[in-house]
Design a protein that fits this description.
Elements (H helix, E strand, L loop, with lengths): L12 E4 L6 H14 L5 E4 L16 E7 L2 E10 L9
Parallel strand pairs: 1-2
Antiparallel strand pairs: 2-4, 3-4
Length: about 90
């Protein structure tokens, strides 16, 4: 199926395995997540927000560095959703 059509309304943590996703797909998924996930939910990504993108409910970007099998210094980007009613794209 298409991840952008998934019901995210009860999702608390969304891991985007998006290291090689096209920008358009990432924007669609981030927009869907920001618009439909509950306040306090967290999104984790391999990449920062696409340049020029704004998703109103996403909190400040946090960067976590962790050791994984392919990279001792892998960076992960995290956002926690705020409570505003709708995302800006």
């Amino acid at each position: 199926g298409d991840a952008t059509s998934a019901d995210l309304s009860r999702t608390g943590v969304l891991w985007l395995n998006d290291a090689l996703w096209p920008t358009e797909v990432r924007q669609q998924m981030l927009s869907k997540a920001a618009a439909t996930m509950p306040a306090g939910s967290t999104i984790i990504s391999y990449q920062p927000l696409p340049p020029g993108s704004s998703f109103g409910r996403l909190g400040d970007e946090r960067v976590l560095t962790a050791s994984v099998s392919w990279n001792a210094g892998q960076r992960f980007f995290l956002w926690t959703l705020g409570s505003s009613a709708r995302a800006d794209t």
